[in-house]
């Protein structure tokens, strides 16, 4: 039987990543990654291209790309041609070799599972663009391009919100007029669900438990950050809400603030932003809270690594550190710990592990140390020697060996592209 090729496409606000998987037999064998390519820096040109064959053979590293590659669609076209033109990648000799393209779509509305993209599905998702202004429109632009340029492939939408469809009604409901909420679909949806699905599956294996018996507090910490309470392998609560803006602060997002704050911030917040288009309507309020807030507004940088090094100074203990950087670091730790405490109580203390993931969760041992020390009263303890090591495995245990509690602390190298490919490979409907 001929192997099937699955493309996982992850379009961010300033980047596009494509992972290529080979599946020996759909439904019976797991996806094996054979290549990965990424264009980053679309909002801070010149953009750059990185191409890795297999999982570690770097073919192109941070190569500046043509200035015509300025948006997600043109970036995807470049990535596709990079794959097809690679003679050392025989599995993808032409576009027709690609069987399934799975797309990360941030907001899926009421969809509780991945969807084969049809005209009806596409238009339904298009109507949700305003709820995830940094992501959905970019992803749908690539979907449209794939339908045009790769007509033989099946396109599947995998939603960041689908994992959270299990959130109970009393948690997902906002205390507003019920009829208005229902007609306008105003409720908590939650995001980073593809990542949380991967984390749940992989951590359950390490714990030696069935997924449906696993309770976690998981943190996806990157330029966009969120927390999730996972009960019996399903989402019980999460920090993001109707849109990805709620909850934890991020690189340019405010996270949760007093709803009336924005009206005291500027006088034109109710007007449409000059950056709105015919397809995407963004108010000045949304623009301020999504793009002009977060660490960037506090420190002038979106690089959390710079915030950490600035906060802790030359001696690594805060001596000579920058006060503004320390403020941003402490603020982030405080907000994270607030959600951990809330979720610990919501799960009634039945928590198997606290899990750090995402770029910051994986790389910042300083942040992990600060968070675990603050929530140590809940029974979490971290081994500093383990914590200071570079993360190598998919899931690594950072807990103290002699800990008197059974509560674990893990770091997980989450993989949204793999999770999407795995979902497609296991679902007969998409073959």
TrEMBL record:
Active site: 160 (proton donor/acceptor)
EC category name: transferase
InterPro entries (alphabetical): Ac/propionate_kinase, Aliphatic_acid_kin_short-chain, Aliphatic_acid_kinase_CS, ATPase_NBD
UniProtKB keywords: ATP-binding, Kinase, Magnesium, Metal-binding, Nucleotide-binding, Transferase
Catalytic reaction equation(s): acetate + ATP = acetyl phosphate + ADP
Residue numbers binding ATP: 17, 220-224
Residues annotated for substrate binding in this entry: 104
Binding site for Mg(2+): 10, 416
Listed name of the protein: Probable acetate kinase
Record bears the keyword Kinase: yes
One Pfam family from the record: Acetate_kinase
GO biological process, one term: acetate metabolic process
Source taxon at top rank: Eukaryota
Cofactor(s) required, per the database record: Mg(2+)
Swiss-Prot/TrEMBL site (Transition state stabilizer) positions: 192, 253
Pathway given in the UniProt record: Metabolic intermediate biosynthesis; acetyl-CoA biosynthesis; acetyl-CoA from acetate: step 1/2
NCBIfam families (alphabetical): ackA
GO molecular function, one term: magnesium ion binding
EC number: 2.7.2.1
Family: Belongs to the acetokinase family.
